[in-house]
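Exercise: predict the fold of this chain.
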Amino acid sequence: MPSEVGSGAALAQHPHAQHPHAQHPMATHVLANDKGIDFDALQALPVASATRAPETRRPGILILPEMFGLNAPMQALADGWAARGHPALVPNVFWRSATPRGLGYDGADRELAWQRLHALDVDQAVRDLRIAVAALRAMPGCNGKVLAIGFCAGGLLAYLAAARCGRAEEQGVDTTGVDAAVAFYALGIARYLPDMAAIRCPLQLHYGLRDQHVPASEVAAVAQAMQRAAPDNARLELHRYDAGHSFFNNVRPGYDAAAAGLAAERLDVLLETL
């Protein structure tokens, strides 16, 4: 349920920060092909994951990127999760777009990223996620559980994955559903509030109160919808921080170590249940 504003103790670097120099197998993985176009993804596996005993396997991490797609920071984020022992997959949610490549944060790429996002077929993108979830669940080192973590535009997809692709405990045979989802400063959830009632798996939403892209009115509407949809469901959480957009991304100007550290702690609490 909605929480109070969090500040947290200042951290030099939160536990899920990008680790550009971590050493582990990293590769591009083709998930599907449609009319000659590859649905590609970045794949990061823990060292020796193929030989790990079943009891040491960990949940797979499905990273749903910002509107900039498969860029270096998303690769590094997957790197960090693999270094912690989790297989990670970053699907290219823009693979059907005219410009599917990863984009930079500034200049012409930034404008192109906005154009590409506005043209994205969100419903199709969510359907595509089932392919990515099934692939991640089958990866070496995965314990059969999948946690979706999305940022900005990817945060909306993580929310919709929980609503449309989430699986409750009694639905464990579904290999294409996520077991939990976490969304950071998600864009546009207010347009999909009716989906809230369908969520049966754990969900965390993390927002910055000074976010220039997600107004406080939208966060309030999401919190109210969460309360109406499941007033007694402790598995639905909404957390607010004294921070701006991209507060979890340590290569962006809006990075906030205190907010990121507190959010990472909350994420880890959820992860321990999977």
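Check your answer against the key: Residues 6-13, 19-23 have pLDDT under 50 and may be disordered.
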